Amino acid sequence: MKKHILATLFTTGIILTDSYASIALSSFTTDEEGWDTGKWTTETSPNGLSESNPYLRLNPNGIAPRRGVIMFNTAPDWTGNYATKGVTAIRLHVRNQSTLGESIYLRAAIGTTGNPMSGTWFASSLSTIVDPSSGWQQIEIPISEETMIKSSSAMAGGTSGPDTFDQVYENVFALRILSQRSRRSAIAETSSGEVYIDNVQIIPEPQTIGILTLSSLLLLLKRNKGTHPSLRSPRHYRLLTDKLDKFVGEYTKYDPT
C-alpha cells in the first residue's frame, strides 16, 4: 500500500510540476486570448507548428493601428506582481514570414500603464533577431533588472517615468512583445510582413515551481491521511513527506550551465 501511495504521489508530482512550468500559457486554440484582441487574428493552416495547430497571425502594414509587430496583454495571468510569481522570462514560438526580407527584433516590455505614453516602462536591453523564412523557432526573452533598461516616453517631450525596476516588476499593468531595434523604446518600429506567434508562456524560476508543487503534494497527502492506514502512522507519514521534499528538490533543481 505504501509503495502504491508513493508511486501515485510521485506521478502526481510530475504532472503538477509540468503544469507549473509556465505561469500563463496562450496557445491560441480558440481566439487571441487577450493579445491585442481585434487587431490580430488566429489562423489554422499548414504554416503552423503542425498542419492543424492554430497560431496568432500578425500582419502589420506600416500604418496605425497595425503599424508594426507588437502584441500586449493586461489580463491578470500575465501581469501583477512578478516578484511573487517568480517570473524570469517569457518564452514563445515565432515564425517570420515577411516576403519583403525584413528581420524582426523581438523584445519584451513591462510597464505600469496601458501604453508607454505614460507611466514607467522597462524593455529588453538586447533583442532577439528572427530572420525571414527561417521557419518556426522557440525563443526565450529574460525578464530581470540585469536584462532590461528603462524606456523613453512615447509622448513627445515626456519623461521616462519615476519608478524603479523593482517597483514596475512588482506592479506590472501590461506586458508587451514587440519588434524594435532601439533598446530604449517600448513601442514597435514600423514594419510590414506577416509574423506568426504560438505557445506564449511566462516562465517562473525553478524554486517557485518546487514550492508550488510541494505545497500541492503535501495538501493532497494531508487530505488522504485519514483514508489510508499506512498514512496514520507518524513514522510513515514523515517518511512520505521527506521523500516528497527530496523528489521536488531533485526534479526542479536549478542548473546554471
Explain this structure to me?
The chain is globular, with a radius of gyration of 22 Å. It is built from six helices and twelve strands. With 257 residues, the protein is α+β, with helices and mostly antiparallel strands. The protein has two domains: 2-15 and 207-251; 31-204, Jelly Rolls, CATH 2.60.120.260. The strands form two sheets. Strands 1, 2, 3, 5, 9 and 12 form a six-stranded antiparallel sheet that branches. Strands 4, 6, 7, 8, 10 and 11 form a six-stranded antiparallel sheet that branches. It has helices spanning 2-19, 82-85, 165-169, 206-223, 229-232, 234-251; strands at 24-26, 41-43, 55-58, 70-73, 87-96, 104-111, 121-124, 128-130, 137-142, 148-150, 174-179, 195-204. Helix content is 26%, strand content 25%.
Q: What fold name stands as the CATH topology of the largest domain?
A: Jelly Rolls
> What class, by secondary structure content?
alpha+beta
Could you tell me how far the N terminus lies from the C terminus, measured between alpha carbons in angstroms?
40 Å
How many helix segments? Answer: 6
Which runs of at least 5 residues are low in confidence (pLDDT < 50)? Answer: 12-20
Number of strands: 12
The number of domains is 2
% residues in beta strands: 15-25%
Overall geometry:
globular
Sketch the major β-sheet: 6 strands, antiparallel
CATH architecture of the largest domain: Sandwich
Provide the CATH top-level class of the largest domain: Mainly Beta
Secondary-structure element sequence? HEEEEHEEEEEEHEEHHH
